Amino acid sequence: MLAALLLIVLPSARASDQALWEHSTLNQILRRGELRVGVEAGYMPFEMRDRNGNIVGFDVDLARLMARYMGVKMTLVNTQWDGIIPALMTDKFDILMGGMTITPERNLQVNFADPYIVIGQTVLIRKGLIGTITEREQLDDPKYTIATKLGTTGDIAARKYFAKAKIKAFESEAEATLEVRNGRADAFVYDLPFNAVFVARYPGQVGLLKETFTQEPLGWAIRKGDPDFMNWLNNFLRVIRADGSYDALYGKWFEGTAWLKNVGGG
């Protein structure tokens, strides 16, 4: 009786696995010969435009390496941040690699691979406050205006940690940081890598409170119900961490500054 039951169950399980693979995003990528990657250019040093208008950055190099391991070409799909998850869910691209923080709310809509970097929120301050504001708590005051990028974890953190200050949310990092450079906003709350690069890019024009006050893992997002693609991504991340590829790219974008001369002004 048991043997007969196994004969029924095992072929059915194999058929189910094959059906999952047929519908896997990974299988579709291999058949198409193209990995489509969703990003939003503007998040230094993860993805931004160089002086020729090309999208470059840490995520872009990781995506290119990922495509090379798959044996396919890589295509970037630049997408507005407030619509980037819906775009993934409606198959505008295969994977979201736009420096997205893993949150429980987002995880209800998409699945995340293992974190590929951990960052935290910091505060960029206008020139006139350098030396006067030395701790973020000083900015939690109605007389200060805090700029944020709409829909980001920086926006959420600003409203939580600077509840007494005025919050002005903008569609892009460029708009928000321009407010601080021009003195129309006192500070900008955003991820440490972006703020650190921005200060290096505009020395003396803005200041940075370097201490992070959140801890945020970033992850690649994919559509739900795709265990084969998730398995491949997590193994890919383990391999590039072990063989030194990840460290080389991290050093290029986070520890080096040579790339700054190729990025247009903003």
Strand order of the largest sheet: 10-9-11-8-12
Find the CATH topology of the largest domain: D-Maltodextrin-Binding Protein, domain 2
Q: How many separate helices? A: 10
Residue windows where pLDDT falls under 50 for at least 5 positions: 1-6
Which H/E pattern describes the elements?
A: HHEEEHEHEHEEEEHEHEHEEEHH
Which CATH first-tier class of the largest domain would you pick? Alpha Beta
Give the integer mean of the pLDDT values: 92
Please report which band the strand proportion falls in: under 5%, 5-15%, 15-25%, 25-35%, 35-45% or over 45%. 15-25%
Radius of gyration: 21 Å
Major beta-sheet overview: 5 strands, mixed
> What percentage of residues falls in helices of 4 or more residues?
40-55%
Whole-Å distance between the termini? 73 Å
Q: Write down the overall geometry.
A: elongated
Query: What is the name of the CATH architecture of the largest domain?
Result: 3-Layer(aba) Sandwich
Write the CATH homologous superfamily of the largest domain: Periplasmic binding protein-like II
Count of the separate structural domains: 2
How many runs of DSSP E, i.e. beta strands? 14
Content-based structural category: alpha/beta
GO molecular function: ligand-gated monoatomic ion channel activity
Domain Solute-binding protein family 3/N-terminal: 34-256
Domain Ionotropic glutamate receptor C-terminal: 34-256
Pfam families: SBP_bac_3 (PF00497)
